[in-house]
Specification:
Length: 358
């Protein structure tokens, strides 16, 4: 994947301009359909030094005048206040990818962070939305489920996914047990309509989010974590409505990805620490989201059912390094225009990277 990173800007320009197709390889017809769920990942200790400087990624969005204009027009520097019951803002994201040889499924969690329906989730869940941009040899579909239990409610489009994460993890899309640290594992979706043309509420329940720099003083405090964990593969494949689950635990520790800031919380074990809760919020006692679940934890140290979560401060800083603008500006303004620019500028390139690995 090194050559893709080093020459990313050139590749993006040529693929978009010429509509070029990067060839892909396919598994033999004897390949059995597989279940692809959110990864069971153990974070190494100590975390490696993962630089977030702009030199690591193609400078497409920072140098793209249309995206920069979209990020400014109508956008705001403040984040919206959320609802009183943050559990109502949680969603389940169910995706599938099918071609003549394979069937892959993934389920994950997420949560609304604006009344207009922007969802924060993991890149390892949202990457399947990139495959919707690939017309050849396969069909991808993602549905946002909501409620308790979660029922299909909304159609969503990709507003943003970290290109750094896709570049570094594209090869893992076919791995049923991928590993990683959780760095750059974030994405933003936005609701485009209701399932079966059902109307979308004027204001969706959303969580107040806090992107302030975390402090080590928060270690040991009580928090809640929630989402839509999946008990087993049969439950997922049957299409059974998943119940929303919520549990209380503690912040065990705070680590950095080499930024000298608090980037990832280690969470104590709880009953929700299983597959499918990736992308769920970590919520303080006053109902504010401060982090998002990204990997499984180290049970021997953190307790059975432990999880790790990247801080919203880290997401805010990382998205600014990749685009020039923080989270508040990214989720406000003309969303359809921003999404269209992102789709035209980066999605073809990122989608082909994933397609090559299927």
């Amino acid at each position: 994947m090194t050559w893709l990173i080093e020459f990313g800007t050139t590749l993006i320009t040529s693929v978009v301009a010429a509509g070029g197709v990067v060839s892909s390889w396919w598994l033999p017809p004897s390949y059995e359909p597989t279940l692809h769920t959110a990864p069971a990942i153990i974070t190494p200790t100590p975390l490696p030094n993962l630089d977030t400087t702009a030199a690591r990624i193609p400078q497409v969005l920072i140098e793209n005048a249309a995206y920069q204009q979209a990020a400014v027009l109508g956008s705001q520097d403040t984040l919206p206040a959320g609802v009183h019951n943050p559990a109502e803002a949680m969603v389940n994201i169910f995706c599938s990818f099918r071609n003549e040889n394979t069937i892959r499924y993934t389920t994950g969690s997420g949560f609304f962070i604006t009344p207009s329906g922007i969802i924060l989730t993991n890149a390892h869940v949202a990457q399947f939305l990139l495959l919707e941009a690939v017309d050849e040899d396969g069909t991808a579909n993602c549905t946002v489920r909501h409620g308790d239990p979660a029922a299909p409610r909304y159609e969503a489009a990709l507003l943003y996914i970290s290109p750094t994460w896709v570049q570094e993890h594209a090869a893992l899309i076919s791995d049923v047990a991928p590993k990683g640290t959780g760095a750059f594992d974030y994405a933003l979706l936005y609701v485009t309509g209701g399932v079966d043309t059902q109307p979308v509420p004027r204001s969706l329940p959303h969580i107040t989010i806090d992107t302030a720099l975390p402090s080590t003083r928060s270690i040991g405090t009580t928090i809640s974590v929630g989402g839509y964990p999946t008990a087993n593969t049969e439950q997922l494949l049957s299409g059974e409505a998943l119940p929303r689950q919520y549990a209380t635990t503690t912040l065990v520790d705070l680590y950095t990805f080499g930024s000298n800031y608090g980037d990832i919380y280690l969470l104590g074990g709880s009953r929700v620490g299983t597959q499918g809760v990736s992308g769920g919020p970590v919520i303080t006692e006053d109902g504010t989201a401060i982090a998002m679940v990204v990997t499984r934890g180290e049970d021997e140290r953190q307790g059975a059912g432990s999880l790790n979560a990247i801080t919203l401060s880290y997401i805010d800083r990382s998205i600014e390094a990749e685009t020039g603008f923080g989270l508040a500006r990214t989720i406000s303004g003309n969303l359809s225009f921003k999404a269209a620019v992102f789709q035209r500028t980066l999605v073809p390139f990122l989608a082909r990277m994933l397609e090559q690995e299927l």
